[in-house]
Amino acid sequence: MPPRRRQRPGLLSSTRPRAVVKSNHAALSAKATRTLIRSHHQLLKAKAQAEKAGDEALVSSINAQIEARGGLESYQVASKLGQSGERGGDSSKTLIDWIKPQLKEWKSTLPKLRVLEVGALSTKNACSRTPSLDVSRIDLNSQEPGILKQDFMERPLPSSEDERFHIISLSLVLNYVPDPVGRGDMLSRCVQFLTAECPISLPPTLFLVLPVACVDNSRYLTEDRLLAILSSLGFELAQSRRTNKLIYQLWNHTRPSSPQAFKKEMLNPGHKRNNFAVIMRES
């Protein structure tokens, strides 16, 4: 029998987490997907705290940990898997189902409704396949053509009604923001991007999707507090539904915004609860 050929050692690059995630998308279990997403959020939170404290060494260390886990790209891969058909599906289907009665009023002679999808992961979701909608997609790390690489908080403010939107989608975006003040600022900023001019009877709309733990298992945020925050911005809750993991909400902007200050305060004590919070600065 001829001697067995010695196997050549693999390249170091083959052990990098990002490559593993990219080549084995389907192999990620639901549990592994949730773990990756949770780990990414925890690291971003720790990074924000280190930046606030001015600890550059710790910031650098955390950045290294984020990159070692595949960076933003691996987080997006996990998010895409979480929204795949076999993991619960495209969240924008819920949005389309909720506004379907109003969309029936639309005719091809009317302007399309402008949608801003923040944190977009796909150009083929339910919104994108709806003829009456003109979808603008942005994300911090664009994964495909048709998604603009842009931070919503740095997007230039609209200078005309044509640059405003009838619908803004924040699907699993607010929970990605690591700082409670930043989350409040993001909600406030949405108002500035909504238009009151609509060719059909659909009010300016915010579609919000959060992990249910953000409102059920947080020390500092409850569903009632979220309602109070968005009400102060002029929103009215039109639709809401829950799954085991997510809460979906549709908010209509029905009156002028008059932001109130909402501080980080204990609302739901418990040592097993999380620290998710939204802080609003009074304008």
Number of domains: 2
Share in helix = 25-40%
What's the rounded overall pLDDT mean? 82
Q: Which value, in Å, is the CA radius of gyration?
A: 21 Å
**Total number of beta strands:** 7
Element order: H for helix, E for strand? HHHHHEEEEHEHHEE
Helix tally equals 8
Give the overall shape: globular
- Specify the CATH class of the largest domain: Alpha Beta
Strands of the biggest beta sheet: in what spatial order? 3-2-1-4-5-7-6
Instruction: Tell me the distance between the termini.
Output: 82 Å
Q: Kindly report the name of the CATH homologous superfamily of the largest domain.
A: Vaccinia Virus protein VP39
Structural class by SSE content: alpha/beta
Please mark out the parts with pLDDT under 50 across 5 or more consecutive residues, or reply none: 6-28, 80-88
CATH topology of the largest domain: Rossmann fold
Largest sheet: 7 strands, mixed
Beta percentage is 15-25%
CATH architecture of the largest domain: 3-Layer(aba) Sandwich
